[in-house]
Write a structure and sequence with these properties.
By secondary structure, the chain is mostly helical. It has one domain. 45% of the residues lie in helices and 11% in strands. The strands form two sheets. The chain has a two-stranded antiparallel sheet. Strands 3-4 form a two-stranded antiparallel sheet. α1 runs antiparallel to α2, α3 crosses α4 and α4 runs antiparallel to α5. The chain is globular. It starts with 6 loop residues before the first helix and ends in an 8-residue tail after the last helix. 32% of the residues are buried.
Length: 159
C-alpha cells in the first residue's frame, strides 16, 4: 500500500533529525507562508532537507506559486491537508495551530505562538516591502486579504 505524504509526516520526519525542533519550527513558518500566498501545489516533493557540515536542516522555500489567483483555474484544493482539510478557503490560524499541535513534535507552547507570529511577520513584510515591478497588484491584494483574515481569526474564505 502506497502512503501519501502529509504535513504531519513531514513534521515528524523533521522532528526525528538532530536539531529537529528547529527544522519543525521552520516547517511551521513555511506552511503558514504557503497558505497565506495561496500555494495549492505544496506537496511532499516540494520539501527538501539540506545536509550541511553543521547538520541537517529544512531547505528554504522553493517552487512556491500563488496558484489560487489564476482566473478560471482555481479548484481550491491544496495538495496537502491542514488539520484534515484540503479546501484553502477553510484555512485559519485555528486550523494551522491544531495541525501543528497534532504533530507531537513541538512543545505545546511554541506551536500556537509560532503560527500567529509568522502571520504577523507576513503582515509586517506586506506593510514594509513594495510590490515588485511586474507583479499583479491584484495578487498582492489577495495575499494581503488572506493575511488579514488569518490575523483576525477568520477562515481565508473566497475573495
Amino acid at each position: 500500500m502506497r502512503r501519501r505524504g502529509t504535513v504531519r509526516r513531514v513534521a515528524r520526519l523533521l522532528g526525528s533529525i538532530p536539531g529537529g525542533e528547529a527544522a519543525a519550527e521552520d516547517w511551521v513558518r513555511q506552511l503558514v507562508l504557503r497558505v497565506a500566498i495561496g500555494d495549492n501545489d505544496l506537496h511532499a516533493k516540494n520539501v527538501s532537507l539540506l545536509h550541511l557540515p553543521g547538520g541537517t536542516r529544512l531547505a528554504p522555500v522553493y517552487d512556491a506559486v500563488p496558484n489560487f489567483f489564476q482566473e478560471g483555474l482555481v479548484t481550491w484544493d491544496m495538495a496537502l491537508a491542514v488539520d484534515g482539510v484540503f479546501d484553502h478557503r477553510r484555512m485559519s490560524v485555528e486550523r494551522l495551530v491544531a495541525e501543528t499541535v497534532s504533530w507531537g513534535v513541538l512543545p505545546i507552547g511554541p506551536g500556537p505562538g509560532l503560527v500567529g507570529e509568522t502571520v504577523n511577520d507576513l503582515a509586517a513584510v506586506l506593510d514594509s516591502v513594495p510590490v515588485p515591478d511586474g507583479v499583479s497588484p491584484r495578487m498582492a491584494d489577495h495575499v494581503r486579504r488572506n493575511v488579514d483574515r488569518l490575523r483576525t481569526g477568520y477562515e481565508i474564505g473566497e475573495p
